[in-house]
Amino acid sequence: MEDGASTTGTGARTLSLTVSASAPEPGLYLVATPIGAARDITLRALDVLNTADMLAAEDTRNLRHLMDIHGIPVRGRRIVAYHDHNADRQRPAILAALGEGRSVAYASDAGTPLVADPGYRLARDAAEAGFAVRALPGPSAALAALSVSGLPSDRFLFVGFPPAAAGARRTWIESWRKVDATVIAFESPRRVKQLLENLCELEANRLTVICRELTKKFEEVLRGTATELLEQIPGEGLRGEIVVLFGRPEPAAADEGSLREALSELLDGSPVKEAAAEVAARFGRPRREIYALALEMKKERE
């Protein structure tokens, strides 16, 4: 890699960069692309886009634009559109190229491939056929939102896009509402208000974070309860790309009978200390209190 720099009269530096990279080995390369700022792409991703035998993309226009920005020529290479509506038709052609010993770079519309895009089946079929599948890590809207949310990140659940129909969306909310983890979802800016309305029907005080236009000029992060954020969103919804995060649910209140029942299930196969720690975390009770109860139950059994 060679680079040089010159200084303009304004003090800004104009950089020139030349990157030399060898052709990648045969296989499928999953290329993470920027979710907003075009410079949020790795050098390795640029290398592979520059040297792969075939290019595939959820949106070929976006990939061409990204390559133009970074000065990567197409050089007559085939760019295959691969999206939800044509995946079954296009997948055999990509697999055939891999079978010929070619390298194929697949780029999502924005962010990390296989996260809420159709690349899953392509990667699965390529791996099952014995071809190498390589990830080129990079931008991810879900992880970027988690990083700035201020919510716990030690355990999180990505649940994709909510269903559009109100009834299905309520069922979808129930599927994760009691999970002890930070929940991450993508949502249409026009429907984010309806999503919060549905959540408020069940848990109005759930800590919620809305990230809008991450890494872009008008990036915005809204934090509060579901009710508080619902009041801030206009009737027509928001604008831009949206990620919604929900904090962990409030610990379930429990009487001694419920605690004993939970401990009883765990004490059969776990040490007292581990069983007590799990039940304490589940019900939001002090570990010392639950450990004492677990010891008492063990003595009763003996």
Walk me through the structure.
Belongs to the methyltransferase superfamily. RsmI family. Residues 1-11 and 13-17 have low confidence and may be disordered. Helices cover 40% and strands 20% of the residues. The protein is an alpha/beta fold. The strands form three sheets. A five-stranded parallel beta sheet has the order 5-4-6-3-7, sandwiched between helices. It folds into three domains: 20-139, Cobalt-precorrin-4 Transmethylase, domain 1 (3-Layer(aba) Sandwich), CATH 3.40.1010.10; 142-246, Tetrapyrrole methylase, C-terminal domain (Methyltransferase, Cobalt-precorrin-4 Transmethylase, Domain 2); 256-301. Helix 9 (256-267) crosses helix 11 (287-301).
Q: Could you list some keywords that capture this structure?
A:
3 domains; Cobalt-precorrin-4 Transmethylase, domain 1; 302 residues; Methyltransferase, Cobalt-precorrin-4 Transmethylase, Domain 2; five-stranded mixed beta sheet; five-stranded parallel beta sheet; alpha/beta; globular; 12 strands
